[in-house]
Predict the structure.
Amino acid sequence: MTPRVALAFFVLAPPAAWAQADGGATGVLTKVPQLLEQVEAEFPASMLDAGTGGTVGMELDVGPDGKVMDARVVESAGLDFDQAALFAVRRFVFSPAEVDGQPAAVRLRYSYTFFFKPVVEEKPIEALDAGIAPGLVNFSGRLLERGTREPVAGAQVVVGEGEAALVAVSDEQGRFELTDVPPGTRRVVVVSPDHLKYEVTEDVAPGRRTEVTYYVRRRLYGGYETVVRGQKEKKEVAQVTLSREEIRLIPGTNGDAFRVVQNLPGVARSPYGLGFLVVRGGKPWDSKTFIDEAAVPVLFHFGGLFSTYNSNLLEDLSFQAGNFDADFGRAIGGLVKATVRTPSQSGVHGYVDVNLVDASALVEAPLGKDWSFALSARRSYIDVDLPAILGLIPGAKDAISFSVAPRYFDYQARVEWRPKGTKTRFFVNLFGSSDVLVAALPNPALDPEGRGSFGTSIWYNRLLLGYDTPLSARVDFRTRTTFGFDDVSFNVGEDLYAKSKQFPVQSRNTFTLDLPEVRSKLEAGVDWYTLPYVVDAQSPQIIKLNQIPDPFASRREQSEHSQTTMHQPAVFANAILKPVEPVRVVAGARVDWNSVMQKAWVDPRLSAHWQLNERLALKGAAGLYHQPPDYRQGQLSATFGNPDLKPEGARQYMLGAEARFTDAISLDVQFYYKDLFDQTRATLGENGTSNLSAAFEDVRYKSIGKGRGYGAELLLRHALTKNFFGWISYSLSRTERDYAEGTKWGRAPFDQPHNLIVVASYKLPYDFIAGVRFRYVSGALTTPYVGAIQDANTGFYFPLPGEFFSRRLPDFLQLDVRLDKRFVYKDWMLAVYLDVQNATNRGNVEAVVYSFDYTHQAYLTGLPILPVLGVRGEW
């Protein structure tokens, strides 16, 4: 008896893990490693008498020099087979893999199959079937993944048994060929590390070519897979990056990528669970979101359940709570960056998703060689469900009704050219969103002036052009140009309104120079933002000091009708330096100018990362950050605001450490301090007396505000493995603002001292995935009313506020649960999911409501429970 050994491998290419590599790297695997030196594994002598074989699935970590650094068994065939396979592969030598043209460490998935072949009597060549021409390909086919129809690469196809068995390995397109397969009924076995063993019999006819297509079932659908465990090069020192699978399956987020960000350290819970990004206690305006470097003006639809961009189109998403580098600006809070993936170049794929809130669909496919496209859209039907829900709540229809119930839709269209094996690509991305509602107020107590309705409409569109290309062996160029149209309106009745049309144009152009001889990279670019906009607004006059407000004062309005073009050019530069091998320093600066304010500012920034050893690193950063005041709310308006305002500023400092306990488990701890200055503050008169709590009282602004924020953030994370991922996120923080003209410090409106989130998701047998999310947050702040004054002429009561934001509401507790089940068919899959928010049905307090005379009060609670049941068909 003689054994036979076969092997197959494929590269777990690391696009997500390398997407944020410094110098604008694209994360393209530009060179696949080739096996240069192979050591044949010996068939274990102990298994000869057993007369059986086996397949050992392994993962190999191959270094930039092509040598195997580590190997481990992920699918055992028995101790003896495992040891023989490991002994062999640890002596393999590969040609170095390259990512973006540079040698890089990669992880290979290896499959070693030990075939037991009984010795058979050799036949003379005359005895062979004359129906086969020597060297003729007479058995070929393609391997596709069942359910997704994706090609299965690196799989072994074994035809026949005994010494006559023939072995082929599928290529990147899943194709394979075999020559001289003897005619007759032959056993075919397909072996792949990530797929179940596939067996079938085929009739091979003499003199004819047999063509087959096999649909191989994946071991884990929607499961998790660790792609690369090596330390990737990055310039950001305080960044968290999430993959597509993490994004899709976190409970309580409905699979939305940007809602996942709300579960990370440094992000506070927004009021009523809405989609504001409140980072380190700052205003939502302080933080910015970019999709392929294009600024997104509205991140979430009404209610905050879904973002305005389809998460299924994203490759990855990264978040920084502060201390981001100089290539981004006009923000003093956090930074969210999303990268859109290349549409499928392997076939037509897509999905249709229907749940209790909305419906969405996506289709993507190749367009000839190296071209592909994707189309997607989402439409809510809350406008159908909400009237029925209000009918179940006593008195709800007496308080409010909708002539246009809340509804939203969004769309995305992308065409991309990306030649394989290169860093060059070009894409056109068109996307947009619309939210509309018009509500009636039939209850006079809620609408004393009898206007009877209010409404809002938010519509934005973006056309994004992107191009990446190497200009030389050392210089890369990246450009992103965006054209937009936004239409935003709000009205109360017909006489109070604010309408704005905006036509933003942004162009970001970045050059990266690689200097390997001095272990450095230089990055420089231009970030130009032009905003033509038209404003048509009418509002009540400003309240006067020391007077009881007239409840009908809003009948005497002031208005503005203006057309302005704001230019905000900026230049930036970063130097990524390695003075010694374990230390990386990023020194950068950014210069901005604003044409409406007629002011310029310079923001220097510095960060350092020191890799003490393989498991522990220290990091730190300091920088200056500026942003224009929130011109969307009229703060730069000559009528309602002050065009002479200064840019709002922040000095940011951070110290931290990163520890990696195992390949999957890591801990990130950072301490931060923010010093806010020149903050835009609403004032009540020419003497500058401030009242931060109620922006509605006056829209005369001055740059006199100060603030500070400090705290610690912890992220204990279990990265994606085959069956599990999760993390524990905890933020301990304090955010303060100055009151009474800087003579007193008090809590800022979004101060949340404690924010604890635990996320866990596990892949169960039979294609079930279960996940939970637990959240504990300090209660929201509110300003208490200490009394009220009655206007004898009208009978209205006007409250007397106490100390600003001095009352904290009860703590917030929430448990979310998600369950996914997948059914796999040959050409498509069906997924059923249930995402239950606040599964414990707890009435969390969101605000305080008062009686008409402010003598009684009660808590206003959020939705007690929100189950979202949905089905999803994928192909």
Notes: Helices lie at 15-18, 79-89, 244-248, 257-261, 382-392, 396-399. The mean pLDDT is 82. Residues 3 and 116 are 5 Å apart (CA to CA).
